[in-house]
Design goal:
heterodimer; A: mainly alpha; two-stranded antiparallel sheet; 2 strands; flat; B: 309 residues; mainly alpha; MetI-like fold; 75% helix; 0% strand; Oligopeptide transport system permease protein (chain B); membrane (chain B); transmembrane helix (chain B)
Chain lengths: 339, 309
């Protein structure tokens, strides 16, 4: 049987031309859009939380431990980690118990009648490792951040000038970077530190002396593309200075690549600092960075493994989370990676 | 291609010249004398010694001589190892470094390619996630941390393998693994992306349509093309092996160039530091050049700039 559709269901559709162009989703700016994309990336979000926790601990840790990072107490040296409340849970390594060479467990805390709790234990000079690890994290992060910032400033200026003005200036500037990029990075860093003697400032200087080249190349490539756009032409026609065009029109459009690049610089700077410490060119005692702590811990790895394993876990956590975060940001900010 | 090559070699020479000059002037700035027992010598003896080594001449003359010597492979005399020439010290230590580097590169790229290919073939399964997790770990965890943990858990706790020195093949296993982690991670990540890219191309669809077997498609058709871009990561991998070998050789007490470099840094043995630096720089620029040329030759789709018909 034929099915009939009642007549009253039919009505006239009204096409309102003024409404067809209506925006029915909230408009998002660049950062809101990027945040939406980062949020979808579970690895990046977890990394962000863990990295934030580590950074907070780097500043809060040395305060809540109630100990100084450079106070030596030789009678309390090489104590294993012990934490209140966790010391009775035997499978956790925080029970203040050590294994001697014969394979027997003993508690140096009881033997030496130590009342205090050293959460991550103490080193060979009786300094509190908990305080030193977070103080070291602070210094490692400071060095990495400074190096990344200086790399960013020099690289952006160099790349923007080179790309924007083009011609002979670009030619000369690019020949210089081509030579600089041919020099192995760590070799330059090692030579500079031999000359300057280790310290926070000299490590930063050594790392930034050729470190900015990568950033300058990325920025130059982007500027070369952007400077042909109409809005740059319009701005120039209106009589704006070169400085204003670069600063106000080009830089905001470069923000994505600059952030991605800087985010990748931070973990590699942390790695380089640790690497320098490990080959004997790091900070001098009593100052500590994650690199020097791992180096010190490595020397007594067989007897007191916790002295290396704890800073090693912290540095690995920082490296992994920053790398994942940078990956996530790249996927979110890079227009070429858009799905 | 010819013009490009000439240009590249020209930059190479400038770079090496700059590094050599930099090392020479650093040697002049940094305090220290080439004579092991300098304070026992009388001023007259010092003069004779200086004249013998040409140190009494003006700096520009010394500079010209140094550059000339470096070109012929003479890096001066070590401060610490009883007046032995630096070049002799370096040559003696090349063997272990080369063996370690070669083993790590071989294992690293083979395992990396294997992991990357299975991750791509089993995309978005636990195999893929596992391989990606390994790659992230290998890229992020510093090699010296990894080496220390390997030494402690595999060497000391389990007692499976020797942890120090260089006396036979079993001594090379742990350092090779520690050094190969980074190449594995980088190659695996790169290989996965390339393989996924290639697998979605038209000629793979055609091969499938013609009824080629799964393995034939994966290994005969896809793998070959996916392998080409991997050559580009060989350059960065080589650099990572070079810097990695410094710490790995120190940790495992391997008598290689890296270990000697680190020792000479702690001993302020400047001629050795400078000689090794120049050697590293030369190796670096040559390898990068070879990789670039190789890439142009192997992949006909890519022509290095200046090579237009």
């Amino acid at each position: 049987m034929e099915r009939k559709i009642p007549k009253e269901l039919f009505g006239q559709a009204i096409i309102d031309s003024s409404k067809s162009e209506e925006i029915n989703k909230p408009s998002l700016n660049f950062w809101q859009d990027a945040w939406l994309r980062v949020r979808k990336n579970k690895g990046a979000i977890v990394s962000l939380i863990i990295a934030a926790l580590v950074i907070i601990m780097a500043f809060v840790g040395p305060v809540i431990s109630g100990k100084e990072f450079d106070t030596q107490k030789v009678s309390h040296n090489n104590l294993p980690p012990r934490i209140q409340g966790l010391e009775n849970i035997s499978w956790l390594p925080f029970d203040g118990v050590k294994v001697n060479k014969a394979g027997k467990e003993f508690s140096p805390y009881e033997q030496r009648k130590v009342e205090e709790y050293y959460w991550f234990g103490t080193d060979a000079l009786g300094r509190d490792i908990f305080t030193r690890v977070w103080k070291g994290t602070q210094i490692s992060l400071l060095i990495a951040l400074l190096a990344a910032l200086i790399d960013m400033v020099i690289g952006v200026i160099y790349g923007a000038v080179s790309g924007y003005f083009g011609g002979r200036i670009d030619n000369i500037m690019q020949r210089i970077t081509e030579i600089l990029i041919g020099i192995p990075y760590l070799i330059v860093v090692i030579l500079m530190i031999l000359l300057l003697k280790p310290g926070i400032a000299s490590i930063v200087i050594a790392m930034t002396i050729t470190g900015w080249v990568g950033m300058s190349r990325v920025v130059r490539a982007q500027v070369l593309k952007l400077k042909e756009q109409e809005y740059v032409l319009a701005s120039r026609t209106l009589g704006n200075s070169h400085l204003k065009i670069i600063g106000k029109h080009l830089l905001p459009n470069l923000a994505g690549v600059i952030i991605i690049n800087t985010m990748f610089t931070i973990p590699s700077a942390i790695f380089n600092e640790a690497f320098l410490s490990f080959i004997g060119l790091g900070l001098q005692d009593p100052l500590a960075s994650l690199g020097t702590l791992i180096d010190e811990g490595f020397k007594v790895l067989r007897l007191h493994p916790y002295q290396m394993i704890i800073p090693a876990i912290v540095i690995s956590t920082i490296m992994i989370t920053f790398n994942l975060l940078a990956d996530g940001l790249r996927d979110a900010l890079d227009p070429k990676m858009r799905d | 291609m010819g013009r490009y090559l000439v240009q590249r070699v020209f930059y190479m020479v400038i770079t090496l010249f700059l590094i050599t000059s930099l090392t020479f002037f650093l040697m002049k700035i940094i305090p220290g004398t080439p004579f092991a027992s300098a304070n026992k010598l009388s001023p007259a003896q010092m003069e004779i010694m200086k004249a013998k080594y040409g140190l009494d001449e003006p700096v520009p003359v010394q500079y010209a001589k140094y550059i000339g010597n470096v070109v012929t492979g003479d890096f001066g005399i070590s401060f610490q190892f009883s007046n032995r020439p630096v070049s002799e010290l370096i040559v003696k230590r090349m063997g272990p470094s080369a063996q370690l580097g070669f083993q790590a590169m071989f294992i690293g790229t083979i395992i990396g390619i294997f992991l990357g290919v299975i991750a791509a073939l089993r995309q978005n399964t636990w195999v893929d996630y596992g391989a990606t997790f390994l790659a992230v770990l290998g890229k992020a965890v510093p090699s010296f941390v990894f080496a220390g943990l390997l030494q402690y858990f595999v060497g000391v706790k389990l007692g499976l393998l020797p942890v120090l020195f260089w006396k036979g093949f079993e001594y090379t296993i742990l350092p090779t693994i520690a050094l190969a982690i980074f190449p594995i991670a980088i190659t695996a990540r790169f290989m996965r992306t390339e393989m996924i890219d290639v697998l979605s191309s038209d000629y793979i669809t055609l091969a499938k349509a013609k009824g080629a077997s799964y393995f034939e498609i994966a290994f005969k058709h896809a793998l070959r093309n996916a392998l080409i871009p991997v050559i580009t990561v060989l350059g960065p991998l080589f650099v990572s092996l070079m810097t990695g070998s410094l710490v790995i050789e120190k940790i495992f007490a391997i008598p290689g160039i890296g270990e000697q470099f680190v020792t000479s840094i702690t001993l302020n043995d400047y001629p050795v530091i400078m000689g090794t630096t120049i050697l590293y720089a030369a190796l670096f620029v040559v390898i990068i050049l070879i990789v670039d040329i190789l890439y142009g030759i192997i992949d006909p789709r890519i022509r290095v700039s200046g090579g237009k018909k």
